């Protein structure tokens, strides 16, 4: 019916015929032109595939392809007959071998890359090893145990309470055995109960400062790129021999040593005099840290003074100024860096003729000076009055203390992020010196030294036990780079640059 209708209409029939012819031509062209192309692509794919799959192991031992840790692309060796590739049979064994080889190679390359990275890092740290722009608090010996004073005269009931607290506190065999021994002695003589003072457990155990241990520590600190150790000088006689040993050991690790004296418990002039006298004992040592003063035209030691702000309106404080008749500077002259907490403490430091100030406590927000966002204020104050601001950075703060210090000063490490923000803030403020609290102040939980994971103790997970030492190296390198750039930017040719004290020179 339809056809008849079309046949009747000759014009429509013509169109239909034409369309059929066009379609036929198109189909023919497609078949003639495209099919060889498809064929050739297939052949190329096939060749590549075979070369990849069988090429390397075609000669038998696939291991020959590997030389110098790199897999060389094997030449195309596919068997051909009259120029046509004869696909090899699928061989599961060969395929598995290849996959295993590739995996081994990949691991090897990853290892090589890591190795290179580590080598580069070490080289860098060694290169900058003698930087005296970074100081670190070092404890020798570490006060592992806390002795409860009340226990000295405490009756039995209280001792039991303390003992129970100890057992609850630390689930540690060493401790419970030490408790057991002290418990037996308790029945006869009243001895102080020793309570472990740390929230982390050191990888080296509850060590004593032996020569080999000090060497190990100095090596670690040196490899971080840190040049100066800060020791607490209490003036006690027991400390002298140990500190002399430290001073003798330091030069072979390119380390210098400076001291922190404390006026926390006594702000009398006599006491301060005694402290400075104690420092003079060490001042002849080669490794005693000194900077060259452009204004005084000689080398002067840098001394930290803990709780210096308490010297406000005291005779001892007034005696710090060189202009005073009875100046303490006649006894011991140096660059005194005073510990501050509050905003007005910087004015106290300036009035008392201190050359600089530091915040000491690494707990962000705990005090005005310890608050990171206040550091730009402190830096500009220092710049205005030609003083030094030495920010104290730390990886965190964790006191294991039943009676923690006043205020909330505990700071979580946040997997290294806390340490990172502290460093970055200090670096961006373009300070000349940074001090780190601490290498091994375990009682404060601010140490960067290696830890050992242990039940009942904190550790650095996730991450290696050397995590904070590695992070320190990273930040020291970062600090030096920025400092060089900053100094170069403000350098005036032909004039001594006091800006960043690049070579231990202070104006
Ligand atoms: C100490 O520094 C000197 C010169 O800067 C260098 O030659 C020496 O290798 C350094 N020593 C160590 C142990 O890095
Ligand atoms: C401070 O130290 C001096 C000198 O050692 C001493 O005479 C004085 O009694 C001490 N004062 C206090 C309050 O401890
Ligand atoms: C300094 O830190 C304190 C917190 O300790 C904060 O209240 C204050 O606003 C900060 N001051 C400045 C100038 O940033
Ligand atoms: C350190 O730098 C100052 C100022 O740039 C310069 O006068 C002095 O000679 C330098 N000292 C050393 C030991 O390079």
Account of the 3D structure:
This protein has 13 helices and 17 strands. By secondary structure, it is α/β, with parallel strands linked by helices. 42% of the residues lie in helices and 12% in strands. It folds into 3 domains: 1-34; 131-145 and 203-500, Glycosidases (TIM Barrel, Alpha-Beta Barrel), CATH 3.20.20; 152-189, no CATH class. Helix 12 packs parallel to helix 13. The strands form 4 sheets. Strands 5, 8, 9, 10, 11, 12, 13, 14, 15, 16 and 17 form an 11-stranded mixed β-sheet that branches. Residues 365, 368, 371, 373-374, 377 line the site of one 2-acetamido-2-deoxy-beta-D-glucopyranose. One 2-acetamido-2-deoxy-beta-D-glucopyranose (NAG) is lined by residues 266, 268, 270-271, 274.
Care to count the β-strands? 17
The secondary-structure element order is: HHEEEEHEEHHEHEHEHEEHEHEHEEHEHE
Task: State the oligomer.
Answer: single chain
Low-confidence stretches: 35-80, 118-128, 150-188
Distance between the termini: 112 Å
- Number of discrete helical segments: 13
In CATH terms, what is the fold-level topology of the largest domain? Answer: TIM Barrel
Class derived from helix and strand content: alpha/beta
CATH-scheme architecture of the largest domain: Alpha-Beta Barrel
Ligand identities: 2-acetamido-2-deoxy-beta-D-glucopyranose
Count of distinct structural domains = 3
What is the overall pLDDT average?
77
| C-alpha Rg (nearest Å) | 37 Å
Largest sheet: 11 strands, mixed
CATH hierarchy, class of the largest domain: Alpha Beta
Strand content: 5-15%
Q: Helix content range of the residues, please?
A: 40-55%
């Amino acid at each position: 019916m339809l056809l008849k209708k079309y046949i009747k209409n000759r014009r429509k029939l013509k169109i239909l015929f034409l369309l059929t012819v066009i379609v036929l031509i198109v189909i023919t062209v497609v078949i003639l032109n495209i099919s060889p192309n498809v064929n050739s692509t297939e052949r190329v794919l096939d060749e590549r595939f075979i070369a990849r799959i069988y090429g390397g192991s075609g000669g038998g031992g696939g291991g020959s392809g590997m030389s110098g840790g790199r897999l060389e692309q094997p030449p195309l060796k596919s068997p051909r007959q009259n120029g046509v590739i004869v696909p090899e049979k699928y061989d599961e064994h060969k395929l598995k071998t290849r996959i295993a080889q590739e995996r081994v190679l990949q691991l090897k390359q990853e290892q090589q890359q890591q190795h290179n990275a580590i080598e580069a890092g070490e080289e860098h740290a060694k290169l900058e090893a003698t930087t005296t722009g970074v100081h670190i608090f070092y404890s020798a010996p570490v006060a592992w145990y806390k002795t409860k004073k009340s226990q000295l005269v405490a009756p039995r009931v209280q001792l039991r309470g303390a003992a129970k607290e100890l057992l609850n506190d630390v689930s540690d065999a060493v401790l419970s055995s030490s408790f057991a021994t002290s418990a037996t002695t308790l029945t006869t003589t009243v001895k102080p109960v020793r309570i472990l003072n740390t929230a982390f457990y050191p990888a080296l155990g509850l060590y004593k400062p032996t020569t080999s241990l000090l060497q190990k520590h100095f090596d670690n600190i040196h490899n971080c790129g840190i040049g100066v150790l800060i020791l607490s000088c209490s003036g006690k006689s027991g400390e002298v021999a140990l500190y002399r040993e430290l001073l003798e050991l330091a030069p072979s690790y390119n380390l210098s040593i400076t001291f922190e004296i404390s006026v926390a418990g006594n702000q009398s002039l006599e006491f301060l005099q005694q402290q400075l006298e104690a420092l003079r004992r060490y001042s002849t040592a080669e490794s005693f840290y000194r900077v060259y003063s452009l204004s005084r035209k000689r080398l002067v030691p840098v001394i930290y003074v803990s709780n210096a702000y308490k010297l406000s309106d005291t005779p001892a404080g007034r005696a710090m100024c060189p202009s005073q008749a009875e100046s303490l500077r006649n006894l011991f002259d140096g660059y005194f860096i005073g510990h501050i907490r509050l905003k007005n403490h910087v004015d106290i430091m300036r009035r008392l003729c201190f050359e600089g100030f530091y915040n000491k406590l690494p707990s962000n927000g705990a005090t005005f000076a310890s608050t990171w966002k206040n550091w730009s204020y402190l830096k500009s104050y220092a710049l205005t009055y030609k003083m030094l601001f030495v920010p104290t950075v730390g990886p965190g703060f964790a006191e294991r203390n039943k009676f923690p210090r006043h205020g909330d000063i505990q700071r979580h490490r946040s997997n290294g992020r806390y340490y990172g923000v502290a460093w970055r803030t200090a670096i961006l403020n373009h300070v000349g010196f940074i001090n780190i609290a601490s290498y091994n102040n375990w009682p404060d939980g601010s140490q960067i030294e290696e830890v050992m994971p242990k039940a009942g103790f904190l550790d650095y997970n996730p991450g290696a036990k050397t995590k904070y030492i590695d992070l320190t190296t990273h930040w020291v390198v970062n600090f030096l780079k920025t400092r060089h750039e900053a100094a170069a930017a403000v350098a005036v040719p032909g004039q001594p640059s006091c800006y960043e004290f690049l070579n231990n020179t202070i104006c």
